[in-house]
Amino acid sequence: MDVVQIPTLTGDRVTLEPLGREHAEDLRAAVADGDLWRTWYTNVPRPTEVEAHVDRFLAEHAAGTMMPFAIRDRSTGRVVGMTTFLNIEVPHRRLEIGATFLGGSAQRTGINTEAKLLLLSHAFDTWDATAVEFRTHWHNHGSRAAVLALGAKQDGVLRNHRLGPDGSRRDTVVFSIIDAEWPTVRLALQERLAARDRVAGSRAEGRHTGRHA
Which one, of 143, 83, 94, lies nearest residue 118 by Cα? Predict the structure, then answer.
C-alpha cells in the first residue's frame, strides 16, 4: 500500500486527483452550494475555512495518515467536492474512506457512486485491502443510508466517540466492506451507474423525439 504517491483515478463522470491548494476556489463554491457547512453533524468547513482545511489534510498526507483527493466533475471541469483515504493501517491492509463532501448540485448525480467505485477498486484491486471502513455521525441518516446502499454492512456504534466544536457528543456508526464481499459490491455499483446512464439516455431520446415530432 503506497500511501506516499496519491494516484489519479478516472471514471466516466469524475476524476479523483491529488488535493492541492489550487482546488480551494472550487471547493469554496462547493461548500456554499447547498450551505453544506451549516449541517451541525458534519465536519464540512465554512467557505472562509477551506484553505485551512486543505492545509490540514495535506499535513496529514505528509505524516502518512491520509490520502486526500479533489473530486472533479468531468462534464464541467469543476472540482465539486473532496474525499480521502484515511486511518490507513498498512500492516493490516485496512483503511477508511471518509471526510467526503459534495456540493449540493453534484449530489444524486452518480458522481458519488462512481467516486466510491474508483476508491474501492483501488483499495481492493490495487492495494489488496482486507477491509474498507466507512464512519459517520449517528444523526447523519442520509450518509448512513448511502453507505448501506453501497453494499457495506454495519459493524457497530462507537458511543461518545468524538466531541464536537460545540461540546456535543458524537456517536459514530462504523460500516465496512470486506474483501470477500468486494466482487458482488463492485457488480452492484457498476449496475447502478449503468441504470442511471440508461435512464439519462431515455430522457435525452425523449426530448429529441419531442422536438421533432
Answer: 83
Instruction: Provide the sign of the torsion angle of the four alpha carbons 19, 25, 29, 32, taken in this order.
Output: positive
Rounded distance between C-alpha atoms, residue 138 and residue 129, angstroms: 26
Residue pair 133/174 in contact by the 8 Å Cβ criterion: yes
Distance CA 145, CA 108 (A): 13
CA distance 30 to 79: 8
| Short-list 110, 86, 114, CA closest to 16 | 114
State how far the Cα of 107 lies from the Cα of 119, in Å rounded to an integer.
17
Cβ(44)–Cβ(36) under 8 Å?
A: yes
Helical segments of the chain, H only: 24-32, 50-62, 111-121, 141-150, 182-211
The whole-angstrom separation of Cα 52 and Cα 182 is 35
Q: What is the pTM of this model?
A: 0.91
pLDDT per position as a tens digit, 101-120: 999 999 999 999 999 999 99
Helix or strand holding residue 93 (H, E): none
Among residues 57, 68, 64, 75, the alpha carbon closest in space to that of 7 is found at 68
CA distance 193 to 117: 10
Q: Per-residue pLDDT for 208 more than 60?
A: no
